[in-house]
Amino acid sequence: MKEYRVLTINPGSTSTKIAYFVGKECLLSENVAHQSDELATFSHISEQFSYRKKVIEDFLQQQAIDATTFDAVVGRGGGLLAVGGGVYKIDNCLLTDAKNCANGVEHPACLGPQLAAYFAEQSSCSAYVVNPPDTDEYQDLARLTGIKGHYRTSHLHALNLKETALHHAQLMGEAYRNKNYIVCHIGGGISVSAHRKGRIVDGIDIVGGEGPFAPTRSGSLALSTVIELIQEGYTSEDLKKFCTQTGGLVSLLGTSDAREISEQANQGDEPSKLVWDTMLYQISKTIGQMATVLKGNVSAILLSGGMVYNENLVLQIKDYCEWIAPIVAYPGEFEMEAMANGALRVLSGKEELKYYKGVPIWQPSDFPL
Fold first, then answer.
1. Residues 137-156: what's their mean pLDDT?
2. What's its catalytic activity (predicted)?
C-alpha cells in the first residue's frame, strides 16, 4: 500500500502550524510564531498570504523537503459557508469564498485553502479542506430560536471535535458512525458538542457567544445584559469582540492565560479561584445539556484541547459529569492529524471526496416558518 505524502497547513491568529506526513506518521512539524506588530501591518487577512507562504517555504527548505513531491496538501478551511462534515476539494468556488471570507468571519484560517492551493500546484496534486470550522450537521430541533427569522448556527472546533471522536472510537474498537459521544474542545476557545452516530447534531455557537465563557470569549449572556451593555455605550463591534476577543478571562481578570489563572487559584487567590471554578462549572453544565440532546445514551464524554493538560480541570469535570458516562481526556489537539487523515481516507478510496457548492447546507427557507 502506498504511503502518501501529505502537507498540512493551519494558519492561526498568532502562528502558522505546518506538518509533513508520510502515511499516518508525522515526520516533521513546526508551529511558527508571528509577532503581533508584523501581522498588524496587514489590513485584511488575505493580505498575509505572501508572508505566510514564505514561512512555509522556509520551513520546507530548512527541512530539505521537496515541495514538488506531495500527494496532497490540506489547509484549514476558514471563510466558507456552512457545509456537511467531510473532505472537500479546493476548487475555484471554494477558493473564492475563502478569499472573500464568505461566512463573514475574517480569521487566519481563511488563508488555509489559499496556501494549500498554492503548494498543491507546485506538486501538481490535489488540495483539500477537512471538516471546516462551519461544518453544520445540526438536527432541525437545534436550529429554531424564540425570535422569528433568527436561527442557531454551527460554529465549533469541528475539525478537532470529529477527529477526537474518530480517534477514541478507533482505540475502543468501535465505529464512530454507530456511537454517541459528547466531545469538548477546551483551549483558547471552548466547544461542547453532541455526536449522534457520526454527526454533530447539536453544539454551541462559539462565534455568536453561546456556551461557557472561555479565555477570550464571553459565553452566553442574558438579553437583559446585552441591553445594559448597549445602554452603557458599547457598539455592535464591541459586543462582537466580547464574543471572540475581549470577553471571558480577559474581561474578568485581564489575561487570557488560563495556566496563570489556574496557578493563582491553587495558591489561594480568591478572584482567580472563583473565575476558574465558574468556567469549569459552565463547561460541565453545557455537557449536561448535550446529554439531554442524546437522551442519556452517551458512550463517552471526550475532553480535548490545550487546557485538558490541567489535571484539576479534568478532575472537576469528572466530579460534575462522570455519572453521565465515562470521561476520557485527550490533552492537546488532533487538528494536523485530522487534516492528514482526511486526505489519506480520500486518497486510499475509504471516503468519497466532496465538492463545495458555495451555498449553505441549510437555509431559513428550508424551515416552515
1. 93
2. butanoate + ATP = butanoyl phosphate + ADP
